[in-house]
Specification:
Layout: H1 12-18, H2 22-59, H3 74-82, H4 87-115, H5 125-169, H6 173-178, H7 181-221, H8 228-242, H9 246-249
Membrane topology: Multi-pass membrane protein
GO cellular component, one term: membrane
Family: Belongs to the ABC transporter superfamily. ABCC family. Conjugate transporter (TC 3.A.1.208) subfamily.
């Protein structure tokens, strides 16, 4: 037989007389046998490779995402502010917060100053103008402070989003094998949404509350500094009950 068809029928002597190329047929049979023997190690290698792939798949198994609850330091919020402005501008914003807090205390200080005057001096029209100017200036500075601070945090959110997008575009394929698409989209939609919408307002309220407590302590100490040591434990307890700590912001 050759290539699936019968060439000659008969005994060996008949095959010799027919002139069939027996050497070519034998070489083809030997070559086929060698090929089959060569394929057997390939099958073993394939099994070994499949075993390695199973180990690789186990290594690439996607871990379930869980929420981590813990303490967030103020250093992280400093880096968050620094993402949207330079260090000098960040210091300028902090200075602006202190100036505005001082302007909020000035109207109360002016009223305290008026109480030390006589009854006739308390009814002067100039004092009312001064008080109105202090209140108006405090309101104006508060608006400027909120606008500058929120604008800085929005710039921080934009830069963080661009940095995340750049990291995703430069990430290797292994990153997408170990992280599902839904998890990546949650980082860009849910987490960035919180940073854009919720965090700036809450962060501003937290800073204002802390400064309010500090201003209240300073204003209460100013008239009678010697009486403060006896009253400061209760005052500090009230302030810390209302103050927002860093982990509460998240």
């Amino acid at each position: 037989m050759k290539e699936g068809s019968i060439l000659v029928k008969g005994d060996f002597s008949l095959l010799l007389r027919s002139g069939v190329d027996l050497d070519g047929i034998n070489k083809h049979a030997v070559k086929k046998t060698v090929t089959v023997q060569m394929e057997e190690p390939l099958i073993e290698d394939r099994l070994v490779n499949e075993g390695n792939l199973e180990e690789e798949f186990k290594r690439l198994e996607i871990a379930e995402e869980d929420r981590v609850i813990g303490y967030i330091s103020w250093k992280l919020y400093w880096h968050y502010m620094r993402a949207g402005m330079r260090c000098i501008l960040a210091v300028a914003v902090i200075t602006l917060f202190l100036i505005v807090q001082g302007s909020l205390i000035l109207p109360d200080w002016w009223l305290l100053h008026l109480t030390s005057r006589s009854h006739d001096q308390q009814h002067q029209l100039e004092d009312l103008y001064i008080y109105g100017g202090l209140v108006g200036g405090a309101v104006l500075l508060s608006i400027i402070r909120a606008a500058v601070f929120l604008n800085a945090l929005i710039n921080s959110s934009n830069r963080l989003h661009n940095s995340m997008l750049s990291s995703i575009l430069k990430a290797p394929v292994l990153f997408f094998d170990t992280n599902p698409v839904g998890r990546i989209l949650n980082r860009f939609s849910r987490d960035i949404g919180i940073v854009d919408e919720l965090l700036p307002d809450v962060f501003l309220d937290a800073v204002q509350m802390v400064l309010f407590c500090v201003g209240a302590v300073v204003f209460s100490v100013y008239p009678e500094p010697l009486d403060y040591p006896a009253s400061h434990p209760a005052h500090d307890h009230i302030c810390f009950d209302w103050a927002i700590l860093p982990e509460d912001i998240t």
